[in-house]
Amino acid sequence: MSTAVETDAIPELRELRTEHGVLRYRESGDGPPLLLLHGSGPGVTGWRNFRGNLDTFAQHYRTYVLEFPGFGVSDDFGAPHPMVSARTAVTAFLDGLGLDRVRIIGNSMGGFVATDFALAAPERVERLVTIGGIGTPVFSPQPGEGIIRLSEFVDNPSKEALIAWLRSMVFDQALVTDELVQERWDQATDPATLENSRRMYGSAALARMAESMRSADVTPGWAELRRLTVPTLVTWGRDDRVSPVDMALIPMRLLPHGEIHIFPNCGHWVMIEQKQAWEAAVLAFLRR
Questions:
Q1: Which InterPro entries match (predicted)?
Q2: Architecture of domain 13-139+219-287
Q3: Which of 184, 232, 244, 257 could form a disulfide with 128 if both were Cys (CB 3.0 to 4.6 A apart)?
């Protein structure tokens, strides 16, 4: 059952009760359904990722901004890793709202989750757009600078560490305002939300991730991309210091119906730094 929660935000925050916990989301517009999936990082929410883009997409689509479990808005599903909860949440959300087939835009972590969902259930995805969130580095060192800064913050939270991470996220340093820092700090230091971030990006978590990538028994996710039959638009900031742009090379080669659009003078938050150009490219792809 879906219910509305009264807030002073526009649009209102809604609740969808599932067997795993309560998912919260915002929706706006009319038309075919479009699902927006946010990234990870200190103080992130779906609304903060996409609040500047919602009005544009809502002119053409019934647009849903889902809040992943464990990031301080939706309930924590209690999975051992937030990516597991996020994958569960997408299916639970679509099933709960009776959405059989959708277009999906995934930012960073949300791109990986969206890609996994499209591989598992291609019949439910009309078109897929990623903002980063796909592939693997070919030439660049791993982890990238932004992930290192993120790990430093979650291991030892301070405003200085938060600012260092935020500066690694963007090309235009003027975007790192006092208001942004405080907004992110307030939520990122919530104990439950911080613990969720540590499960993803703490130094111990990154070490486990690196070890699993060296294992001969694990098939890397990028090796499955040739099976992704859904039309896919991969978008990237040329100057991304979190997920370097050479991550797009393998998807460019392997995706059967993949397209790549790289935006100059742009870091990890393409939908914010190159808002108008990115929206135009995405709408052209979605409406084709």
A1: AB_hydrolase_1 (IPR000073), AB_hydrolase_fold (IPR029058), Epox_hydrolase-like (IPR000639)
A2: 3-Layer(aba) Sandwich (3.40)
A3: 232
